[in-house]
Structure formats: C-alpha cells, structure tokens
TrEMBL record:
Binds 1 zinc ion per subunit. It comes from Lactobacillus porci. It is an enzyme of class 3 (hydrolase). PROSITE patterns: ENGC_GTPASE, G_CP. InterPro entries: G_CP_dom, NA-bd_OB-fold, P-loop_NTPase, Ribosome_biogen_GTPase_RsgA, RsgA_GTPase_dom, RsgA_N. One of its GO terms (molecular function) is GTP binding. This is Small ribosomal subunit biogenesis GTPase RsgA. Zn(2+) binds at C248, C253, H255, C261. Its cofactor is Zn(2+). SUPFAM superfamilies: Nucleic acid-binding proteins, P-loop containing nucleoside triphosphate hydrolases. Residues 75-222 form the EngC GTPase domain. Monomer. Associates with 30S ribosomal subunit, binds 16S rRNA.
Length: 297
C-alpha cells in the first residue's frame, strides 16, 4: 500500500468513512486494526488514508483528538456557533451562561446568534439586544441577523477548522443551517452531486465545507452537565472575571467574600452584570452538590 493523504472525516455512512482531502472527497473503509483497538473513527477526526492495489481506499490512522463534543459527537471542534432564540424557547441568560461556561471549559470559542428575533415585540427585542451587547463587550461575537452571519461566517472559518452548531432544541439550528447551506452548496456543489446527497432522514452528524473549513450540523446538547468542572476553576471560565482576577488581592480568589476582590468591585460598580455573577454562584452550588438542578432536567 502506498501513502495517499491526510484528511478530515466528514460523515459516516454504513461502515464507510467519507474523508475530505486536499485532493477531494474519498470514500474509505476503516482497516481491521481499529476493530482490535476498539477505536472508532468519528466525524471531525483527522485521519490518514491509503490506497491499495485495487484502488480501494482505507482509513489507517486517527490523529490525536483535540476534543469531542455533542451527542452524536464531533471531534476536534474549534468553534461553536451557539443559536439562542428570542422566544420559543424563551430567551434565557441562565441558559446562555451555562452554554458559555461549558464551552469555555471545553476550550472551544463561541459566537452567538440570536434567532426568532422576528417573533418578539420591539421593546422585548431591545431588552434582549441590550443584554447581548454585554456578551459582545466581554468578547463573544454576537450576530443578530442571519444575513450578516451567512455573509461573514465563511470568512471566519479558518483552514480546516471545524465549527459546530449548538443550542437548545427548537432554537433554530437546522433552520439556520439550511439558510447558510444554500450559499455553501454553491462551493460544494461538485462534491454533493458526486455523492448524490439529498436531505437526510436520519439524524446524524455530518460536516459540510464552508469557507476554508467545515460547519457541523446539529449535535444534541440536552442537559449540560457542569458538575465535572473543578469548583475553584469555575471562575476562570467567566471571561470578564478572568480578566479582572489579576487585580484581586488573593491569588486563587474565588470572588466570594475575599477582601479587595476586583471582581466584586467591578460588580458593585455595575461593570459586571448581576445576572452573570448570580449564575456563577448558582453554578458553584450545582458543582459542589454534584448534581444538575431539578429545573434544568
Ligand atoms: N419565525 C422564525 N421561526 C424560526 C426561526 N428559526 C427557527 N424557526 C422555527 O422554529 C422551529 C424550530 O426550528 P429548528 O431549526 O427545527 O430548531 P433546532 O434548533 O434545529 O431544533 P432541534 O432539531 O430539535 O435541535 C421551526 O418551526 C422553525 O421554522 C426564526 O428566526 N424565525
Ligand atoms: Zn476576586
């Protein structure tokens, strides 16, 4: 066998692994070695493939994974596009903070998209926009328009980077994907036709090419479990707390009742949103009690 290429697994179909390489899309089978090691290639995996004498392609090696998120899982996620709805389900800062904390813990960057803004009253929308402006200020890109998002997203996805959608069920992930896909399909038209892909009836994870990288469809994120996070590390996942923590008197300050705490000072000065601080405290309780609160189940 001769070495052929490296690539990214973009979908799994009936025992075949479709691998996107610089030379195009290759349909491969995993070689027996994986059966022995019980290691299964997953969507998002960077892999090596080889071609045998008959021209059949085999997936022979999986490169180390950066992470695995969602269910079904996507490997090597670089960035999450978090879809949060203005209504149906109701906009919730608590939920937003949970998602952001979870992904910060996973080491994945997040951009936020507000869906269903067309379904709320102007004053409610203004209120939500105001709240989202805070998140923009602390470093999360916020998209309020899907047109702007569809235009900017391809340019934001770096070489072979993997973005994935996330958000509550019903938030509008598939709707957004289909909207963006309509554009993306122009770039990937040749490949789509060669594989004869239509609408999928089964729900599974698949990457599609967007910009210089990939966007993954909707892995489920039902109840986010924050309990594996170390209690004293939680504050490090709140971007604005982390930035201020250097100004706290004590190293390892948890921003609770410690004297000369820069985070509490910023909270009192109104620079940190009270809702963020309250959510931080609620998550601390959740982690120390080791269970997801009843109302979130
Ligand atoms: N008016 C309006 N309706 C929307 C918008 N986004 C999504 N919807 C509707 O909301 C419903 C749920 O949207 P989906 O895209 O299926 O939501 P999802 O996040 O993919 O949900 P799951 O597949 O359960 O995870 C559908 O009926 C969509 O038509 C929006 O921006 N405006
Ligand atoms: Zn502090």
């Amino acid at each position: 066998m001769t070495e052929l290429a490296e690539g990214t697994v973009i979908s799994l179909i009936a025992g075949y692994y479709d691998v996107e390489t610089s030379a195009g899309l290759v349909r491969t089978r995993a070689r027996g070695v994986f059966r022995k090691t019980k290691e299964k290639p997953q969507v998002g995996d960077r892999v090596k493939i080889k071609l045998d004498d008959q021209g059949l392609a085999y997936l022979v090696e999986i490169m180390p994974r950066k992470n695995r998120i969602g269910r079904p899982a996507v490997a090597n996620v670089d960035h999450v596009l978090l879809v949060i709805s203005a209504v149906e389900p109701d906009f919730s800062l608590q939920l937003l903070d949970r998602f952001l904390t979870f992904f910060a813990w996973q080491g994945v960057d997040v951009a936020i998209y507000l869906s269903k803004s067309d379904l709320v009253q102007v004053d409610r929308l203004a209120e939500i926009k105001d709240q989202l402006a805070y998140y923009q200020k602390i470093g999360y890109p916020v998209y309020l328009s899907r047109d702007v998002l569809a235009e900017e997203l391809p340019g934001a996805i770096g070489q072979e980077r993997i973005w994935t959608l996330a958000g509550q069920s019903g938030a509008g992930k598939s709707t957004l994907l289909n909207f963006i896909k309509a554009d993306a399909n122009q770039a990937t038209g040749a490949i789509s036709t060669s594989l004869n892909r239509g609408r999928h009836t089964t729900r599974r994870v698949e990457l599609f090419k967007l910009g210089a990288g990939f966007l993954a469809d909707t892995p489920g994120f039902s109840a986010i479990d924050l309990t594996p996070i170390k209690l004293n590390e939680l504050c490090g996942y709140f971007a604005e707390f982390k930035r201020l923590a250097g100004g706290c008197k004590f190293r390892g300050c948890q921003h609770l009742k410690e004297p000369k705490c820069a985070v509490k000072e910023a909270l009192e000065a109104g620079e940190i949103a009270q809702s963020r601080y309250d959510d931080y405290l609620a998550m601390r309780t959740e982690i120390s009690e080791g269970r997801i609160p009843e109302y979130l189940k």
